[in-house]
Amino acid sequence: MRKPLALTAILVAAALSLSACAGNAGTEPAPDSTPMVNTGQAGQESQHAEDGHDHGADEHYGVPEVTWDAAAGNSVKETAAKVMGLFARPDVPETTWFADLAPHLAPEYAEDAKYIDPARVPIRKVTDGPAISREAGNPLTVTAMFSTDAGRWKMLLHRSGQQQPWLVTAISPQDPTS
């Protein structure tokens, strides 16, 4: 008889302990609260039907549909070539250099680029490029490679939608080991 009594005492203590952790949630409603009633699956279906929306599994939630096509390829090449030409101007005053580049830079990179001294950019001439590469199935981000009088350089570009502009997210010398 002692084992069932001890087990009962443990269960009662556990239940009291759990109810103490929950505060007064089980005994008093919160001030200014509306009681919630679980209506089950049927209630959810009728609520969804009443709101006039089809809540199917294939519903899109503001995700833009973006595809890669010839226009995207041409647009990113034009942007990359223009930006590299603006970047490779070590003799231009810093404020002019940045003002010319800023409209083509993603906000995060623009913040970093504010601190680039164009006199320290070793490129004076782009000799080839851009050569564009991208991951299959990713129409939003590309890498543009350039040959310059200061070696190979790469530029990362990204767009947030089909009709959105390509913005530069990084420009750097290519790692000679890659």
Structure, described:
36% of the residues lie in helices and 17% in strands. The protein has five helices and four strands; from the N terminus they run αααααββββ. It has a four-stranded antiparallel sheet. Mean pLDDT is 78; it is low at 1-49.
Secondary-structure blueprint:
Elements: H1 2-21, H2 40-50, H3 70-87, H4 94-101, H5 107-113, E1 126-133, E2 141-148, E3 151-158, E4 167-173
Antiparallel strand pairs: 1-2, 2-3, 3-4
| Shape verdict | globular
Helix content: 25-40%
Strand content: 15-25%
| Class derived from helix and strand content | alpha+beta
Largest beta-sheet details:
4 strands, antiparallel
Radius of gyration: 30 Å
Please tally the helical runs, counting DSSP H or I stretches of 4 or more residues. Answer: 5
**Order of H and E elements:** HHHHHEEEE
What is the first-to-last residue Cα distance? 76 Å
The tally of strands reads: 4
State mean pLDDT (0 to 100 scale): 78
The neighbouring-strand order within the major sheet is 1-2-3-4
- What ranges have pLDDT less than 50 throughout 5 or more consecutive residues? 1-49
